[in-house]
Amino acid sequence: MLSRLTGFNRRPFDSLSEQEILALAISSEEDDARIYLAYADHLREDYPRSARVFEDMAEEEGEHRARLIERHKARFGDRIPLIRREHVRGYYERKPDWLVKNLSIDKIRQIAEDMEAQAHNFYLAAARRTSDADTRKLLGDLALAEKGHESLARRLGLEHAPEDVKTQEAETSRRKFILTYVQPGLAGLMDGSVSTLAPIFATAFATGDTWTTFLVGLSASIGAGISMGFTEAAHDDGVISGRGSPLKRGLASGIMTAVGGLGHALPYLIPDFTLATTVAIAVVFVELWAIAWIQNHWMETPWSRAIFQVVLGGALVFAAGILIGNA
């Protein structure tokens, strides 16, 4: 029976009985197995080899749990006390498995190795608090099983995800990042930077008023951002194309479209027209070269073509805005 709870409604670890230590180990193995299976489900479509790693890890956790239950039955009977990691002060915690959707494959592998290290430390501490020889031996064996010469995640990785497969999975992860964030974000940045050049600079040279120019630039940038964001999210659900979440793509496209336009609209908050225009022109060139760099770095577009497409195209739109503004 649990003794009186202390501080923050959690038991100190050194207050646990041998039966409670076994019960805690059983519930922890159950939770870890479910977490590994959740990782496997998340990775299966894009990273089948790594998914197999986590399925094997879940299977091994299930074997640990069975051995612990058998030991509990032999020593204390069939009734296992209800005690979980959140009931014990200072005991390691696990993040909800639904957070896996926001994690990269490398981060998941690192979490798995951390989980094993924590479990290893727990079994060592539990063995020290156990006087029964058979229970102490079991906990020591499980500590060795969790630790081994290398982590289980790394050992299973060598079996199911050798270096060439990991390289392929890393390339798949990079491709998904490009399709979900870089590509729509780049399209938005290009649209926001180039399409707003004409209306902003036409307004600037037609009115000579910095505040009016800023308002036109602000409205054009925000409007273009909303339009591009909704268009990107609505035209492809990502299921067949593999381009990822439409919400993420829509946000990337919409935000970068607005940023592209605001870059040369914000300088017109400067009251002096000449200074504001000079700063805006400088920002335009920085934006266009940034777009060319992104195309070259992420999309592997040759520098010559990237410069021709972006810098020359932007310069033509920029010139059109000035000519229209001075008409």
Feature tags:
mainly alpha, 74% helix, elongated, 2 domains, 327 residues, Ferritin, 11 helices
Would you write up a description of this structure?
With 327 residues, the chain is mainly alpha-helical. 74% of the residues lie in helices and 1% in strands. The longest helix has 33 residues, at 163-195. Helix 1 packs antiparallel against helix 3 and helix 6 crosses helix 9 (246-265). It is built from 11 helices and 2 strands; from the N terminus they run βααβααααααααα. The protein starts with 10 loop residues before the first strand and ends with a helix. It folds into 2 domains: 11-161, Up-down Bundle (Ferritin), CATH 1.20.1260.10; 170-325, no CATH class. It has a two-stranded parallel ribbon. The model is unreliable at 1-7 (pLDDT under 50). It has helices at 18-43, 48-76, 105-128, 133-147, 152-160, 163-195, 197-207, 210-235, 246-265, 273-298, 303-325, and strands at residues 11-12, 88-89.
Instruction: Give the H and E element order.
Output: EHHEHHHHHHHHH
For the record, give the distance between the C-alpha atoms at the N and C termini, rounded to a whole number: 88 Å
Major sheet: 2 strands, parallel
In DSSP terms (H or I, runs of 4 or more residues), the helix count works out at: 11
What is the number of E strands? 2
What is the subunit arrangement here? single chain
Main sheet: strand order: 1-2
Percentage of β-strand residues? under 5%
**Parts with pLDDT < 50 across at least 5 consecutive residues:** 1-7
Helix content: over 70%
Average pLDDT figure: 79
Question: Nearest-angstrom radius of gyration?
Answer: 29 Å
